[in-house]
Amino acid sequence: MVLEKINQPNDIKSLTDEELKILASEIREFLIEKISVTGGHLASNLGVVELTMALHLALDLPKDKIIWDVGHQSYTHKLLTGRREGFDGLRKYGGMSGFPKRKESECDCFDTGHSSTSISAGLGYALAREITGEDYKVVSVIGDGALTGGMAFEALNNAARLKSNFIIILNDNNMSISENVGGLSSYLAGFRTADAYLDLKLNVLNSLNKMPYGEKMVSKIRKTKSGIKQLLIPGMFFEEMGIVYLGPVDGGNLHGIVKLLREASHIDGPVLIHVMTHKGAGYAPAERHPARFHGTEPFDIETGLPKNPRVKANYTDIFSTVMRKLGDRDEKVVAVTAAMTDGTGLKRFHNMFPERFFDVGIAEQHAVTFAAGLAAAGLKPIFAVYSSFLQRAYDQILHDVCIQNLPVVFAIDRAGLVGSDGETHQGIFDISYLSSIPNMTIMAPKNKWELSDMIKYAVNFGTPVAVRYPRGEAYDGLKEYRAPISIGKCEWIYRESGIALFALGSMVKTAVAVRDALKAEGYPCSIINARFAKPLDEDALRYITEHHKVIVTMEENVISGGFGEHVTEFYNNENCKDIRIVNIAIPDEYVEHGNVELLRKEVGLDADTIIARTIEAYQNVTE
Ligand SMILES: Cc1ncc(C[n+]2csc(CCOP(=O)(O)OP(=O)(O)O)c2C)c(N)n1
Ligand SMILES: CC(=O)[C@@H](O)[C@H](O)COP(=O)(O)O
Ligand SMILES: [Mg+2]
């Protein structure tokens, strides 16, 4: 096997042309086989096999720097840098990350996970190199989807100042997770669909160059602002920004890409190489369904079907259903996504109400302000977004939505531990960053029915409101508890005395298990479903102090600035010394990738840890 000859960086350089061809197909086979077992980001990786090989042939790692935007397409890079063995534990607890990690390899020079950061980071490296006088090449690899993010444009704008070499690879597969959207995407698609047109451009340029004074004419045309230039110069958009454009080159053409990389490395200043790749290349099911194989669960290689099909609905399914109903009932309801139509469950809404559905590209900041505009104009926007991706829109939430108290609904999916994507994607900060913003209301459902009720309640709430719910299977216990939602009011599940489990959202299910165990040991125990992280139910909190000795706050969020801290602050302000408070929350640290149940144990959100901490606190106050 040729792949077995690759054990460390730069081993690829000793392969013959014939071996390189074999290597490309062995890498694809390897990725399909491994990801079919572990799950992971398959389609994007299959598309960049030759591109990654070309980078490793043209560059010298770890001296040279490659920054992978999002980083979900870095699997071949991991293989070529001696991490083959890591694939058996890909995205598992203690195993290899699915993203580039500086702590994992010296060939990973910058951690990614969220989109559109690679050009900024690359520019940082390039300018640092000018200052320190070091000698390395810098290459940022950004997808056409990631290029729709505002940060990428901010960085391109800034890159024009650079005097030294900086290579940007545009990995253009004409896809984000699903279809890519927007004006830039159409511009790039033009390159793809008009091969004949491109040939025409090249022919015209070649013919002009051959004519007497032709070179001068071409140079003049390059300097004009006219449509003739548009016709003749590919990549004019980038050229006008001060970035030299090279390409487009076919993503399967290994030697073509190497040649362009070598040419590009002689250019002083920023240069963009446009590589046309194919999402899912080499595996028919992924080529047919690139979105499904963007990030996949374990699957059967023959059929491409999931090995463990889902039986129960997840929270995203419930959201999807309620959005369909709301769309039917109320023409003012509009839905916004930042390139996560499938992931957030908005596909049905999109199909049924295309004119009221907006995919804005990977642009969470814009999405929030855009939703604010929709709300200011009288519509009822619901921005469905993953908790971790909303992090970058903090100021837009504050400045554009909350100061004006506009009725934007934030449907925050993946709130809590998400598992295999790891520290960049854990949705464990939203309560903290949202609760610091005046005018914001935050809810979290205990089960699938409550998610439905909360979204319906939120859509007519009239001021900014967030509903946060976790990744995965929706809890279908406690069905009989369905009191109407009322602002800032909790829901009593069991009313006793002694211990009060004051649980938010996903933690109500855990509270049930904790109470069962406590009751079995003879402890009196109430469960209160908090429902609201903000505002808190102050009457209930006062009642709890009167009838309980210990209150245990439970949330799937970091401790700092979280629900529990707010409860503690309330009791401090009330000067309430009669109750012992135990805050169950995620410690002030990043949580790595792995199975969610294992992670819960790791961070102390599991029932056993909570039982032990509760008993200890109760015994302390009753002794
Ligand atoms: C800020 C942010 N929003 C959303 C995502 C989710 N996401 C991951 S990959 C991706 C699509 C990226 O498309 P592209 O850059 O073209 O890469 P491809 O998968 O096509 O190779 C999206 C939306 C993210 N990682 N970061
Ligand atoms: C790379 C990325 O950001 C997304 O592909 C993400 O992994 C999706 O996560 P879900 O699997 O939870 O939709
Ligand atoms: Mg793409």
Structure description:
With 623 residues, the protein is α/β, with parallel strands linked by helices. It has 3 domains: 3-288, Thiamin diphosphate (ThDP)-binding fold, Pyr/PP domains (Rossmann fold); 315-468, Rossmann fold; 491-622, Rossmann fold (3-Layer(aba) Sandwich), CATH 3.40.50. 41% of the residues lie in helices and 15% in strands. The strands form 3 sheets. Strands 7-6-8-9-11-10-15 form a 7-stranded mixed beta sheet, with helices on both faces. The chain has a 5-stranded parallel beta sheet with strand order 1-2-3-5-4, with helices on both faces. The longest helix has 22 residues, at 17-38. The model has no long low-confidence stretch (mean pLDDT 94). The protein binds thiamine diphosphate (TPP), 1-deoxy-D-xylulose-5-phosphate and magnesium ion.
What layout of secondary structure does this protein have?
Layout: H1 17-38, H2 43-47, H3 49-58, E1 65-68, H4 75-80, H5 118-132, E2 138-143, H6 150-159, E3 166-172, H7 183-193, H8 195-210, H9 214-223, H10 227-232, H11 236-240, E4 244-250, H12 254-264, E5 270-276, H13 284-288, H14 315-329, E6 333-337, H15 347-352, E7 357-359, H16 364-376, E8 380-386, H17 387-390, H18 394-402, E9 409-413, H19 430-435, E10 441-443, H20 448-459, E11 465-468, E12 491-494, E13 498-503, H21 507-520, E14 525-529, E15 532-534, H22 538-547, E16 548-558, H23 563-573, E17 580-586, H24 596-603, H25 607-622
Parallel strand pairs: 1-2, 2-3, 3-5, 4-5, 6-7, 6-8, 8-9, 9-11, 10-11, 13-14, 13-16, 16-17
Antiparallel strand pairs: 10-15, 12-14
Magnesium ion (MG) binds next to loops.
